[in-house]
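>> received
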Amino acid sequence: MVTWPWQRARPAGRTLRLRSRGDFGDVLRVDFEELAPDVDTFLGQAAYLQLGYFETLSQLIAPTPELSHKESLTRAAGAALIKHRELVAIVRDRGDDPLDVMLPFREPLDAFRRATHGARSLETMLSVHITAGMLDDFYLALSASYGTTGNRVAQILGEDDDRQALVGIITDAIASDEEWRALLALWGRRLVGDTLLIARAALRPRALDAAEEKRVEPVFTALLAGHSRRMAAIGLDA
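>> returned
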């Protein structure tokens, strides 16, 4: 179980909502009262997640033999690094030290990366595609709670992530060896629990009451629907 280190008070009246259809993703708009994290938590997590995806993808480049696959991994890693740098720029514009803002989340998010790192390169590529997709959706939903800062984050997270290059590598592998399909389908299903824990922990560091659980449910239903679509697009069962 990941232990999250922040215990900050949250300003009254903060609202978390999923954006309307047509903004970012295909999820229904849902409002929450006082469940969104403070802005430093929001920015620190989002920035460190992107740094983690850059690190994970970069580590896959050297052992990958095919030049075209190396180039695809480089593009996806570069996109994550650009997003990390742009999120860090927002932190600096607010007058904060990015290292201080990200540091509380280093240990739990590194643990998350280890838990979702596959034994094989294709599993790890699928991990990045699936977990980053789900958490991008979640942080885009959170961004509606932070005014101008949230709008800037939404713009960054909505930029091209070049992860379709990873999908191409995965689908090519499945086409060449059908055994990959069952293995990767199982791995994709295993990723969901750890990823949803990260999202739930971002809302509030305590157990939600029954009313809050009811309001949260549509958010996670939407995240699971997005996961199913990503898996189906690869030809895998969610």
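>> The beta strands are 15-17, 31-33.
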